[in-house]
Design goal:
Length: about 350
Amino acid sequence: MSLSQILLQALPQVRIDSKYKLPTRNLAAFLGDFPDDRPLSDFLLPGTHDTLAYYGYPFSQCQSPTFPLEAQLLNGVRVLDIRLAVSANPDGSGLELIGYHGIISQRVSFVTVLAVIRDFLRAHPSECVVMSIKREQNLSKTPTILFSQLVKEAVYAERELWFLDNRIPRLGEVWFAPSTSKTGATDVVGGWPGGEHSGMGIHPTTWPDSYRGVFEWMCAGVSVYMQDWYAVPSFLAIPEKFELATAPLITSTFPWPFPPSKPPIPSLTMTYTSASSIPFALPPMIALGFGIWWGGWRWGGFGWRGVNERVRDWVLQVLEGDKDEDQRATKTVIRGWIMMDYVDIPGDLLPLLVECNYH
């Protein structure tokens, strides 16, 4: 491991003074604390952008190699971003789906990924996992219909685990809740019961590429608000990216107020804190920032705070305010699905995100 990787990954857990005492929760089974009739849109679900991207540092790696998929699930991650490409089996026996980020293989099969998730869910029956599935264009240039066929075969091998309706389910209805991602309208189609927009999970009707704002689409009567601005010009855009990623998660200010003539409708926010561009906004730089750390503090004030640290401090401030405002009629509530790079850093980030569900 290079010195730069050590500096970026060995960040301390706590770096600000705080009077908030974080309760101890069972992160592996926290959804069991809530009623089964609660919609998944009413949770703050931690997620990982490019869940399997452990290789290709610093250009393609988006998660810590020391924090594999099983660790993600045990520590509260409930929304997965699975990027796949079709590859020939090494023994020449056929084709299989392999985790990819761009043209970089992540050295794990979709079958193995599903086995890890299945074992976790069977050991923790109160939990569910939302999985976004996207085709990556590796050098093989696989036809769309073949990719779709292989995904369907993997899903239907254990059909009883999957919730495939194109709507936002309630907690008690699901184990797996798949969602096709970004170019999903052409990634997973053909041969699925119900056709392109039914029977293959939550299916976005629009996903503008790197839109610098929040866009909306409807899913069976629920307004879905999404933010995925990833092509930031440099690390200097981290503050703007942080603000854009977190603002939609505050339910008291988003969605925007409805006029009296239009009653509010249920909503879900899905937001990505991840971003990347070469050479001044690589994934670890955006997520973790950079600087010299020692004894839990930034040495000499040198460095630039990444999105993860800013999200952690923001959530902590909201929870502190919630504690101080117990007598107020209105509190700040954080809800939505938040997709992050290097989600294990800082170490108290995931516990704080899970804690939002209790407030």
